[in-house]
Amino acid sequence: MAGESEIKETYENGTKILEDLTNNAHELQEQMLEEILRRNAGTQYLSRFFPSGQADKQNFKTNVPIVTYEDIKPYIDRIANGETSSGTSGGQQKLIPITTESFEKGWYHHFLADIVIEKCFSVSDEGKSLSLYFSKPDMETPSGLVASPYMTFYSKTNIFKTRLAKFCLSPIETILCLDNKQSMFCQLLTGLLQRDKVVWLASNFASVLARTIKFLEDYWRELCCNIRTGYLSDWIIDPGCKNAMSLILTRPNPELADLIQQICEDQSWEGVIKKLWPKIKYIRSVCTGSMSQYIPLLEFYGGGIPLVSPSYVSSEACFGINLKPLSNPFDVSYTFLPNTAYFEFLRVNKDGGGKAQETRTIDKPVDLANVKLGQYYEVVVTTLAESDVLKVTGFYNKSTQFQFVERQNVVLSIDADKTTEEDLLKAITNAKLILEPFGIMLTAYSSYSDTSSTPGRYVLFWELKMKDSNDLPKLDVKIMEQCCCIVEESFDFTYKSLRKGGAISGLELRVVKRGSFDELMDFYISKGASISQYKPPYCLKSEEAIKILNSGMVGKFFGPKTMS
After folding, report:
1. Where are the beta strands (DSSP E) in 55-131?
2. pTM confidence score
3. Pairwise CA distance, residues 530 & 150, whole Å
4. Across residues 337-355, what is the average pLDDT?
5. Rounded CA gap, 378 and 391, in Å?
6. Helix axes 493-500 and 477-490, enclosed angle (nearest 10)
7. Of 17, 244, 382, 413, which one's alpha carbon is 20 to 30 angstroms from that of 261?
């Protein structure tokens, strides 16, 4: 570790860099666009928009259209197929070209986020993180370029091995293991064996931490057995994992095994993270957007440990970092970093519960310096080498602060009704409140539009557990039907009108057994998703995915036949 004076100097430089970035946000954005145009104006894609050869800001805004991934996919496919070369591709479901420079920018802003977080917590030089990262096999494109999920690519870089690995307990061999089960077991075993060194718990997304807790519930006895005997389970056959664990699991430790067993045998797992890792200061993971559904779960298991959402990053660029890590996880705002990409903003109308994508104005996009406080915008990204909805919440120096509002995709649709992700989240949040007095927690949910009969209906899948145990709650019919009523009452005027008119049948709520959503995650991972970057679907489109959750159903309940 660096000496105290070196750490202080690094912090001071980081703070100065951050102040310079935010104080000169407008100028840096102008420079960013100029650099993008200077480098790329002659490409096949952009040159057609500048017939006179004058690639300046005005011509860019006038001539270059706003496009989606599908519009540029043919060009990316040409790179992948070998017509041209543009660096290494990253991603599995979408191929996003990434260059050395764009990767280094992403790492650089990760470093700035680290500085902000570490200033809020007194972390000793000996402290390390239990960072749960996972890998997937690389894929080779027809041109020979390698495509992989971002975390897999990152884990193989020198930056990761020389910097992050110094703070991360998990041996690199366990992270690079392609068997997620073996990887998870070995990373948790490492964390338990070195529990007194763990000062923060981390993953890319909160869904990974929820998965980790479930895995711990299933395997704590076997983990204790490994610790008690000093022998690694026979089913751990990955050579890298076996070699790495042979240097950590070096002797029997029955005292530690007894302690962990005592903690895990407690009927309630409330605060179990703090009990297992007593020196932990915070949990670091993205908890905004679709990940916000896991906040209550992590607060319960964390026992008061702060949840820190460090930054907002998309496949295309790092948007911003959280300058107030101790803020309520439901109220996190990020500050734009103006030197990662060129950002433009399309104002959308969300007043009165309007659907953002249906009420987008015809206004021209504005730049970072001209957004208005309290307004909602769809952000448009132009990089050196996606579109989300943001709410402007304030300003830091001359940069903009924003909250990420989950993109307003329509997830449920029958007849003229279109229910968005935000509508669904709000309705479920209202309904689950009546479960809390009974000690029942909602741990995961999804939905789909069932049009197999007429009229169709919306179906919700809920996974529930008791706060003081992992037992499935006793499902009281009246309480569950009340949940259905609250969800329906929380939907908008259009839904309620169609329900009253008989065009939509009453909501159906299907409760599934514990672990059903883990099986759903396994299904999507088998189809190419990365566990490190997995985002649970609000709405199921796959018949196979619906079948998986249906197979775990332990009860179903309905809203009233008619809606008053």
Report:
1. 88-90, 96-98, 128-131
2. 0.77
3. 9
4. 71
5. 9
6. 120
7. 244
